[in-house]
Amino acid sequence: MRDESQELEELVSRALDRRKFILRAAGVAAGLVLPGAAFTRVAGAANSKTIAFAQPDTSASVYPLLLKGAKQEAAKRGYQLLQSHANHQLDAQVNELNTWIAQGIGGVIVLPLDNNAMHPLIKKAHAANVKFLDYSDKALPGTDGWVIFNNLQGAALVGADAGRWINRTLGGKAKVALLTHEIQQTGKDRIHGGIAALLKVAPKAKVVARHEGVLAADCLAVTQSLLQAHPDLNVILCIADDGALGAEKAFMQTHPSAARQKQMYIGGWDGSIPAMQAVVKNSVIRSTGALDLVGIGGASVRATANAIEGHGSTRINYPYVLVSQSAAGKKTGRKLLAKYGA
User: Fold this and answer.
1) Residues 6 or more apart from 7 whose CB is under 8 A from it?
2) How far apart, in whole angstroms, are the C-alpha atoms of residue 166 and residue 194?
3) What pTM was computed for the model?
């Protein structure tokens, strides 16, 4: 028979093992790796059924529709959905992604505010067995998939419509301003493709200003300055509908006459509800390259879930349709608005 000292030694050893197990589990739950701990996220663990939709422009007019689609797909696939709170701030986005990776979520799909800042995060995610997908662009190397838009196709739709308007309304001559986001591939494709299509149709048009601007508040201030420098500006192409709404507000603050309003064309991309409503009501926002925003939100979760589960498509490309003030363009806009319940 064993003596009491042996039994006591075994009890102490089991207690110490139990304490190490609890501490190690707590470290995993907090996203930490304890000294000497071998950290492996077990497939099927609670966090692996979590997807982060890192679209940082949550104040943008398109966001509610994107989120609606993302939530619907997450519920359908049995995933918890995390939202971004980066508010278009790069430091906040990087911190947010680091936190999610440390928590060992299943995957993240991100609209990057700076592609270069994403490179180390992709490596960190893969080291932690977290899937990392690109939203809007496919410019990031080594991602597990992407949901993108056929930007050059959409750019051509809006640019050509603006060119036709210039020829029809202004006799082919116009002063054009571009509000873009050059650090992102979508910004380059939409604006560069849009102005190329415009100049092909209306070659006498002239670009007089180019400025960074995405969201309404930024583009409001930028357009105020542009109109002071170029009071006879005729066309403003905005990388996003949200910026178009800001540009429209700035223009209307100048109290333009009816004749002056007829000489202004503002175009954008995305197909937000406010922008499409403005188009069909014959405002100075005259076109938008519209996307199926609810569908894109759902596709973002679907592609990420497919990457996590290892089957199904992880690369999705959405086309644009033109919502404009032509009869066909208005019909398209009304159909989308009805689909969105607006």
Assistant:
1) none
2) 14
3) 0.79
| pLDDT tens by residue, 60-93 | 889 999 999 999 999 999 999 999 999 989 999 9
The parent domain of residue 71 ranges over: 46-149+294-318
Angle between helices 241-252 and 216-229 (to 10 degrees): 50
81 and 214 part of one domain: no
Residue 111 has pLDDT above 90, yes or no: yes
Question: Which amino acid is present at 82?
Answer: L
Cα–chain center distance at 170: 35
Domain annotation covers residue 41: no
Residues 136 and 276 in one domain: no
Residues 229 and 157 in one domain: yes
The pairing of strands 146-149 and 315-318 is parallel
- Total domain count for the chain? 2
CA separation for the pair 53, 136 (Å, rounded): 12
Q: What is the CATH classification number for the domain harbouring 114?
A: 3.40.50.2300
- Helices assigned H by DSSP within 115-208: 115-127, 151-170, 185-201
Q: How far is CA 288 from CA 165, 234, 272, 330, in A?
A: 14, 17, 9, 11
Same domain flag for 182 and 265: yes
Q: How is residue 23 written in tokens?
A: 């501490």
The size of the chain, in residues, is 342
